[in-house]
UniProtKB/TrEMBL annotation:
Binding positions (dUMP): 93-96, 105-109, 177, 204
Protein keywords: FAD, Flavoprotein, Methyltransferase, NADP, Nucleotide biosynthesis, Transferase
PANTHER family registered for this protein in UniProt: FLAVIN-DEPENDENT THYMIDYLATE SYNTHASE
Name recorded for this polypeptide: Flavin-dependent thymidylate synthase
Broadest EC class assigned to this enzyme: transferase
Gene name as annotated: thyX
Entry annotated with the keyword Membrane: no
Length: 250
């Protein structure tokens, strides 16, 4: 669900409301072979690169063995950079992942923040039941959906108007941004390797093959699902071994 921004005659920018997030793989040097040459240096030394094309079944078996027995370092010799556009509350959760990740995010001090705001789509389950850490989410009534959408839109509009008023009055961006809510979209580059991505996916996605289930917020899970899809295309053997061994980072 996307509405386009319009400039009114009074030059006030109208907010855009979105329910989807975007994830693009902008740069990568990542393949299953990167795992193999790194692992085989143990036994083949400088010849590990020559071993690469030998026996694909053995390669698959080696990757699975490394994953199963938690030999994690061979999964670090690769790199993926994602461009992500998502609400600020997703980035707050995302940046808790400290190890094997590099981040750069747009600045609310150096640029005027654009009025793009998150409103859950109709498929987003709205009502939580159960105990903390193990919630079950259910759909919610049409009334709850329309209240959520209406309230969010009203509140976002009001907050953005105040932000613009303050900027127009000469207040610095870094001060005025305090009135904006965490449903505002931000954008960042996030660079990781397969090992740090697997750790992230183990915690931020729900999956029937997970040995240790996690209960992430749906919006960060949407980011995780898209990253996983892109990563699986680059490193299919590693991805399959991740699933086969309970979706835990080695
Ligand atoms: C469902 C869910 C609910 C959550 N709820 C909350 C919450 O209510 N409040 C909250 O504050 N956070 C919450 N978090 C965030 C969580 O506590 C972690 O900060 C986040 O998942 C990142 O995990 P990590 O530390 O393992 O990852 P990374 O920071 O990437 O670290 C990777 C691994 O490196 C090692 N490591 C990293 N730093 C250290 C260190 N300082 N000392 C020792 N070992 C280290 C650990 O083995 C760690 O697993 C939640 C996370 C999830 C998935």
């Amino acid at each position: 669900m996307t509405e386009t921004s319009q400039v009114t005659p009074a030059e006030t920018v109208k907010p855009t409301f979105r329910s989807e997030i975007s994830v693009e793989l902008v740069k990568h040097a990542a393949s299953d072979q990167d795992v193999l040459w790194a692992a085989r240096v143990s036994t083949a030394g400088e010849q590990s690169l020559d071993e690469l094309k030998k026996d694909p079944e053995r390669s698959k078996g080696l990757i699975n063995y490394l994953m199963r027995d938690r030999h994690g370092s061979p999964f670090e010799h690769n790199s993926m950079t994602f461009f992500i556009s998502a609400p600020i509350f997703v980035f707050r959760e995302f940046m808790r992942h400290r190890v094997g990740w590099s981040y750069n995010e747009e600045s609310g001090r150096y640029r005027e923040l654009q009025p793009v705001f998150y409103v859950p789509g109709p498929e987003r389950k709205l009502v939580q039941e159960g105990r903390p850490g193990k919630y079950v989410f259910v759909d919610g009534t049409p009334e709850q959906h329309s209240l959520t959408e209406r309230s969010m839109r009203e509140s976002y509009r009001q907050a953005y108007e105040t932000y613009q008023e303050m900027l127009a009055a000469g207040v610095a961006r870094e001060v005025a941004r305090a009135v904006l809510p965490v449903g505002l979209y931000s954008s960042m580059y996030a660079t990781c390797n397969a090992r740090s991505l697997m750790h992230f996916l183990g915690l931020r996605t729900q999956h029937e093959l997970a040995k240790v289930p996690s209960f992430p917020q749906r919006e960060i899970e949407m980011v995780g699902e898209r990253m996983e899809e892109l990563w699986a295309g680059l490193m299919p053997l590693t991805h399959a071994a991740f699933n086969k061994n309970g979706r835990m980072a080695p």
